[in-house]
């Protein structure tokens, strides 16, 4: 029956781990700016794209 | 002519379209930015958003001060031999293109190793190699692509702004404990009488105890501190019953599990603290891009060009200016100290200081006051005082600026808590006395049960959620409020005072009225075309206000600086300018700005400029007059008195020629007579009045840049909504009173269980969250309905 000790320990440890991850995330400033990252993640290969566009541009010029 | 918009900035290109690569630009500046992006494969900037750019400004020499060591020290957040990191505030950041281009700065300058935008705060954090490049070239690069950073004396403060995240930590701790305690109490809720659960009961209970310790001693500590402070000041604030409830909950639960009497109320305890903190968190609505604490430092430059005795130019810090220093002020620069004009033609815009809208011309030898903005060319002046002793900056030594408006203001929650606390304590004592005589063994548990169940969680949540939600609704409607207490104060206002210039009048457009002999069509044509050639601000505004005419070539055109324009076309000779210049016989002293016209030396008439009032001013005043005393407090002269009398309701008081200190004293006097004053202003000249008033609202054309210290910032487009905003605050108070009633209802149910000695932990665990959640739902629905009516 002492398996309950193991289960409790595991559940508390998991809880504490997540709690510390949360604290660490807040401390790192992750929640200070909640808007910019949502835009930033959509930028990906714009630079590549503009390079492929360039020859087309020069053609029309 | 077909009007084209600029590919870079989206402005109308007007008559001079610059074409480049089949794209049209309004000016060479915009074209240059495009060329820079084009060369560096960054044209994707224009794909993300149409015309996202800004016209780059002339910055020649403006940032020379950035090569000074001590200034770099203050502006950078990290400095080593190789690397420097600086965070710059850029007001122009407004779309995804901005983020993209600023985060690709390393393509334009390979020595920039990284740049990160914070869109909310409109800042960019740039890391660069300080051996290869420096702060000055980074700033110049930003300016050259239209993203000029705004560097003011405010940035010169030593020490970085500390972000306070304790509330989030406290909330995290309480939430973590709340969730885990709930899990651990589940078996007890259902009273499962299994053998193994009985066996592990003490373990579960001590675990709950361990989890609740940080909740009481860390998460809830603010309530204890505030209750203690309140008691010390002989005030029964809302935190007194909360602190009492929390400590009783904790002590009783601990005793219960120690003596094995029951499972305790740890779940309710953690839940209570968690909900209270959620309320606190919700009430904190901050606008990253706004500042409510600005003083003159946010407007003043950080450094200024000093002319040394040998004629060389040196940039020095504004704080280092000493009496007798010779300073160079460029066009569009702010004068940081009081001084005497030595050289150059000064045209000073004092709208910051006095609210006066027209520029003032000064001759050499005239005194110039700090806070004025030079608008025509370069001038030299000799400093008479240091920065802190100047006329404008002295206003900030007034005590008002150190006063906290929230002190001495009893908010609605604390008002009710006084009666509430007394009532609860009375009930607790009566119930205990009753049980002492009927069943003494239950007396103690009834006493604590009353204090536990009466813990005013729902009451404490009413105001934060109502105000918090209203703050957000107002924010969406472009009315940005500093904090919740401002809404409460706004609901109590009985006097509304307006500044004139820039507040009820618009800065950009003015009205013009022509008096005198009417001009012939041909004269009008010549007039329009001569104004076209002049760069004088009055000519520019008159030109924009007159009807469109064809463009003709004038035979002669001459501008007499400080007097007017003379133009000849065929047989018409027009003189436009001051009364003396055109030869106006009756030179009456007029307070308004006028432009006189004569044709072939025959006086024709004059154009008089009137302030143009914002749309809906008259309607707003008529709405307000039913409930409030109205005053116009202007720094301007009396020229507009007659106009205002026509426009505004008769009972409006009109007071002119008010200096900044006069405005402050005026409000102070009315407050001493019991008035609750709302001040609506715009410029630095209103700063004292805004600070002194009960609620100071700054009206702003561009909320990102200019607004003095205040309690709320109102976007001009919503100016006419002011009345409905005040009324909404009054309704918010009503909503709170209704939710108080609702929470009393829950308290009565809870007290029934408590007084009769039947309060089981499971009832407390249901009743407390239920009352809190229903209050949150009630206030949120009500404020949203209120918000819908506002739109």
Automatic annotation (TrEMBL), chain A:
InterPro entries: Cyt_oxidase_maturation_cbb3 (IPR004714). The chain crosses the membrane at residues 6-26. Keywords: Membrane, Transmembrane, Transmembrane helix. This is Cbb3-type cytochrome oxidase assembly protein CcoS. It comes from the Bacteria.
TrEMBL record, chain B:
One of its GO terms (molecular function) is ATP hydrolysis activity. SUPFAM superfamilies: Calcium ATPase, transduction domain A, HAD-like, HMA, heavy metal-associated domain. One of its GO terms (biological process) is copper ion homeostasis. One of its GO terms (cellular component) is plasma membrane. It holds the Pfam family Hydrolase. Keywords: Cell membrane, Ion transport, Magnesium, Membrane, Metal-binding, Phosphoprotein, Translocase, Transmembrane, Transmembrane helix, Transport. This is HAD-IC family P-type ATPase. The chain crosses the membrane at residues 167-186, 206-224, 236-255, 261-282, 420-437, 443-471, 735-755, 761-786. Belongs to the cation transport ATPase (P-type) (TC 3.A.3) family. Type IB subfamily. CDD domains: HMA (cd00371). The keyword Ribonucleoprotein does not apply. It is found in: Cell membrane. Residues 305-396 form the P-type ATPase A domain. PANTHER family: ATP7, ISOFORM B (PTHR43520), CATION-TRANSPORTING P-TYPE ATPASE-RELATED (PTHR43520:SF5). Residues 5-57 form the Putative metal-binding domain. NCBIfam families: ATPase_P-type (TIGR01494). It is a multi-pass membrane protein. PROSITE patterns: ATPASE_E1_E2.
